Amino acid sequence: MSASYTHLSCQLLLLLMVCRHVNTKNTTVITEPPVETSGPNTPPVAPLTPLQTGQKSVVLTGENHTEKVEVVNPVTLNLECAWTGNNKRLPNITGYWTKDGKTIETSYSNIQLQNGRYYLRREFSIMNEEDLGTYSCIFDPKAKVDFILAAPYLGEVRDKPIVSYVGDSVVMICKMDEKKPKPLSWNWYKQNGTNKVKIEVDSPGHRYKITKDEKKAKLVVHNLTESDSGLYYCGAVYGIGTSVGYLQLRVITYFEPLKPFIGILVEVLVLVAVILIYEKTGSKKDDQSGAEGNPDQNTNQLHGENAAADGRSSTRQRKV
User: Fold this and answer.
1) Do residues 232 and 172 touch, judged by C-beta distance below 8 A?
2) Are 234 and 186 in contact (CB under 8 A)?
3) Based on the number of CB atoms within 10 Å of its own CB, is 136 exposed (0-12), middle (13-18) or buried (19 or more)?
4) Whole-prediction pTM value?
5) Which pLDDT score is estimated for 187?
6) Which residues partner with 150 through β-bridges?
7) Which of 10, 157, 254, 288 could form a disulfide with 245 if both were Cys (CB 3.0 to 4.6 A apart)?
8) Which pairing describes strands 170-175 and 216-221: parallel, antiparallel, or unpaired?
9) Which DSSP letter does residue 296 get?
10) Per-residue pLDDT tens for 227-265?
11) SS3 (DSSP) at 287
């Protein structure tokens, strides 16, 4: 009995082992994909390109000097001022920097006289259009150097207004000097009150046409009206900002040039009318004075005739 029980136990144990082996072979292991956490899709951070580095140095021999610095792209700019000093030549003076007339509080420094000059240096990061402006190094008490940082200036900006007629077309041109860097693009604006409104080519009526060259931009306005008069701005766009110039347009009617001649003609007609009225009035007065003078002459003549008649009658009486 024990032997059969032992044999049965062994068979059951063997059967369990076979079943376990079969289940293990037919089992598929499923690996779930990693769960992504919800959140903003942050783009990969591109490596930062180091800024270009520029330097501008000025030697000041008097009390004031202005230096224009053209900036095209964002740059780390090192500005340096060297002052030869005044008659006192103190061993130490105070120097500091300003931006558009406002003092940079962290820029104060005690400057020592070195080789007959005072040196004042500072590094500025010019990243956008707001960083442009006038940077000044000031040596106490009065000596100053102004660095005017700006995008390249436009050339050949028209000073006098452009005059055209209602219904005609007009061409306005902005140019960048050939020696200046090429702008990235060009924009045109029109003054509307205190704001500048960008001119779009696909505006209603398609009256505007813009053509762009590397260093020149043209704005053509068709079918002019008097409301087109005003200031127009052209902007040369650079990496650091926009250099802006302006032109003035005056739209007139064909009747406008005749106004001076019409004014002169009116003055002549008024003068002729005054002369005619004066002459007519004078002739009437002469007629009236002549009519009043005739009775006196007739009366005198009658008195003369009567006197002559009396004389003759008296003579006749004497002869008798």
Assistant:
1) yes
2) yes
3) buried
4) 0.62
5) 93
6) 70
7) 157
8) antiparallel
9) H
10) 999 999 999 999 999 999 989 999 998 776 677 777 788
11) helix
